[in-house]
Amino acid sequence: MAGESTTNNADTNDPLARLPSELVLRIIDNATLASVAKLSQLSRAWNNFIEQVHQDAVYSSLSKVERPPQTRDFSFVDPANDSNKYYNKYYNDIQSWKDLCRRQTLLKRRWNDKRPTTREANIQVGDNPIWRFRPDFKRRIFISTSQMGGFNVTDMDSGETLFQLKANKVRPFAHLEYADGTAVFDRPGNAVEVWKTHSGLPKGVFEQVSILHHDAQTRGFQLRDNTLCVVSSEGKGYIHDLSGEPMLLREIDIEDGAVGHLDQGQHVVAYAMGAEGYHFYDKKTGDALGILHPEKTTNTYHVVHPTEPLDYRVGVSSHGRASDVHPPKFPSKSRMVGLCVKKGKLPERTGVPRVALSHDDWGAGMLDGDLFAGVSRGGRTFICSDWRKALASASGFEEVTANLECDTDGSTFDDGGWLAVHGHKLMFENRDRAYIIGLNDDNTLRADDDSPQRPSYAFATSSTAQIAVPISYMGIYDDCVMSTYTVSSAPILKH
């Protein structure tokens, strides 16, 4: 009953004896997990209060676990419903809110380690190098295209090929987009093919739904939540609804010169325009919302390229092929090294010319809620923690934007130039390393001297440093990172 003390403990100085349960729970809600653990060991009464009577209330608090605000139980982490976790078995035996709290805490601790222990898996997909791939955690499959042509669906846990279209059916270096059972890849003739899988088909089997033709050169496309956005360098953007029979919702008139990279949010689509920055449009109306010019920010940081040797991939045989490793194994703390983020511009190197910021060429850009990030030919990464605020005014732009400079040779931009954004972290490639940059809770960048809330680190992009080639796909997920790498046609997974 409200106002009633929580226990008849004789120690009247104990808050548990003096305060109502509601107030004690409110206090615990604001306490760290370390403090909760100490409280539960303080006495039998405290242990009973926290671990028995009010365990669900304590550990289901939004301050203790990450969950949708209106969630009444922990079924949202069921692997069948979860779309962002690789470690299926890690989550499928959760029995209580405390279990979930413990596992999220351990995972967060690992991400926050400056040199995290990682486990690794290599998955071989045929004999030809992968070009693009996408994971489907719900169906436990990988979908990929090849540099030599073809489309493959691979079992995520066994490495078995479930479905395949030969090279004569899917062109070499076909771009691939995928979302919840729908795959889209391009074909000659300014068109894209739409394929779907559903419960009536065997696991991993896809069937063609439609071929979407466009009256302008197709340069790039991106799929999210059954909405396919296509961009042309000839001043056109196309938006298709793929929830049922594919249909064109609208055409958007944009500037000429789109480079092919684009991304979308719920109501917005952003096109990369090279030296002209990133152009934002309303998906519903087609109205122009504004332009982000990365060269206009005065907030500059740089990252020092690591020279410390790294462990190369496990599971690569002596003849250069990847050997399958399921599930990820071989824990090691030497695959990743810390990155040092500093304020100011990258120091000039004698004999190494750098692309001027005013002439830099901007490529891939990605949205993640309020966050927008993009990469450039000159080795810069543009970070905008609130793109709406940045578009609204010059002062807002200056407040929420920064450029991170890297010592680059520019070799990854045309063939790779990829990035990934997720969970207050962004990932991109520089020379023979993949960088993971930790952001603050508000998605701003902070130098090491200013105690950032998350560390930054790098890992090798190839099995042999001498023959590294650009990554053709990378992704950050709740409990792993994935990328392609040299000497293998395999996605690499790190926990």
What does this structure look like?
The protein is an alpha+beta fold and 495 residues long. The protein folds into 3 domains: 1-64, no CATH class; 66-111, no CATH class; 118-213 and 293-494, Methylamine Dehydrogenase, Chain H (7 Propeller), CATH 2.130.10. The strands form 7 sheets. Strands 21-18-25-24-23-22 form a 6-stranded mixed sheet. Strands 19-1-32-31-30 form a 5-stranded antiparallel sheet, with no helix packed on it. Strand 4 (151-155) and strand 5 form a beta hairpin.
CATH architecture of the largest domain: 7 Propeller
Q: How many β strands by DSSP?
A: 32
Strand order of the largest sheet: 21-18-25-24-23-22
CATH class descriptor name of the largest domain: Mainly Beta
Percentage of residues in strands: 25-35%
Describe the largest sheet.
6 strands, mixed
Average predicted confidence as pLDDT:
87
Radius of gyration computed on alpha carbons: 25 Å
Overall geometry: globular
Low-confidence stretches: 1-5, 315-322
Quick structural overview:
With 495 residues, the protein is α+β, with helices and mostly antiparallel strands. The chain has three domains: 1-64, no CATH class; 66-111, no CATH class; 118-213 and 293-494, Methylamine Dehydrogenase, Chain H (7 Propeller), CATH 2.130.10.
